Amino acid sequence: MFENSVTTGRLTQRERRERAEESLLVGAAELIVSEGPAAVTLARVGERAGYSRGITSHHFGSKQGLLDALVRRAQSGFVPGLAGLQPGLERLLALVEGYIRRLGDGDVRARAFVVLWGAASVDGELAALFRERDAALRADVRDDIVAGLAEGTVRPGIDPDGIAFALSAQLRGLALQLPRETTPVDAARLARTVREMWRRSLAP
Length: 204
Prior knowledge:
It is built from ten helices and no strands. It is 72% helix and 0% strand.
């Protein structure tokens, strides 16, 4: 009779690969948060995750490949639940609130994303990667504005490109500012406030 990994308790090759990649990405994120991007080497990441340098190299090829995978993975799932929402104002507001809430939840990969984004101002390779990520965020916001205009939930005359630039800049700015605050900020409360601000600005 056929036995799968669930019934036997053994991991498939794909599951082992995914588990190894996840552990390596978390190890890299922990190093970035605790010591900065310069501390990241394939050997140190492998050691931190319980693997060899060779395994890290096998999965990501180079330090840049590792950072690229970390940034893409962190941003693609940064705000959970968006995939089930149709483009439009409500999805945009969910993005705003979810993004700011995520900044306060302490997830190490989210924190590493912010550290790397800050370092991109002086690192050419990171700068190229984050230009691409920033463009993806702006395109996401723009699509929601355009959809909202079409369905009548966004006020006529709103400039999709201008709003996309301003809103993404605000989110990135908050991501850099919040960790620098000496007095803890209630991220959930701030998220609700910013969501309501954008709803009043955009709704008819």
